[in-house]
């Protein structure tokens, strides 16, 4: 076919998406080596299509298609950029038909972009919801552990004061084989630091969890053969062994 020189530049998107008929594709393929603008447009469209295809590989939520189709009507198609130095001659009706025909793959690309945006938002919302559920489950498990230790018939408590002024209590239960730690008046740690708990077992300090502020937390590990509970100030990620002088070393009842 005889593709008019002024509208052949509008075929870059359709060419990148492999949406041209054979005659148009041959004409454009012959034109591309001579036109820097079209080469750049084709490269941009191909890169965008590849990114969209990769992002669309994730299964979207069931309601995504309905929302996307509803949003397409509000997406305004931008006109193609035609180099100003090239004269625009020929039939306006033929140019209009060509633009309408080439608008189909461009609308498809816009739809894919909208779908990817919705999918990314849905994935983020799903992850946020999952994180919230996990945190709620962990809090519920901690509450159950604390409640069972405090209510145990053989629960024993020992009290102490840390060197930073915090009042502390450890309650342990041999039957539950668990212990919990309570702190009141615990000063806020400096930035990048947190309070780490320890079980002294045969002279070796074993990590036993963290306490970030006033409250009660279960101690990690087996308190059965521990002789004391320690409290130190450590980096927020924790340490394998104490790196600072203990703020508290509270002997457990035998």
Question: Your description of this structure?
Answer:
The protein is an alpha+beta fold. The protein folds into two domains: about 120 residues, no CATH class; about 100 residues, no CATH class. Strands 1-2-3-6 form a four-stranded antiparallel beta sheet, covered by helices on one side. A four-stranded antiparallel beta sheet has the order 5-4-7-8, with no helix packed on it. A hairpin with a 4-residue loop joins strand 2 and strand 3. The chain is elongated, with a radius of gyration of 34 Å.
Give a short summary of the structure.
The protein has 254 residues and is an alpha+beta fold. The protein has 5 helices and 8 strands; from the N terminus they run H-H-H-H-H-E-E-E-E-E-E-E-E. Strand 2 and strand 3 form a beta hairpin.
SSE succession: HHHHHEEEEEEEE
Q: Residue ranges: pLDDT <50 for 5 or more in a row?
A: 85-89
From the N-terminal CA to the C-terminal CA, the straight-line distance is: 96 Å
How would you state the average pLDDT, rounded?
A: 75
Structural class: alpha+beta
**What fraction of the residues are assigned to beta strands by DSSP?**
15-25%
Fold blueprint:
Elements: H1 12-16, H2 22-31, H3 36-55, H4 64-72, H5 92-150, E1 156-161, E2 167-173, E3 178-184, E4 193-201, E5 204-211, E6 215-218, E7 228-235, E8 248-251
Antiparallel strand pairs: 1-2, 2-3, 3-6, 4-5, 4-7, 7-8
Helix pairs in contact: 3-5, 4-5
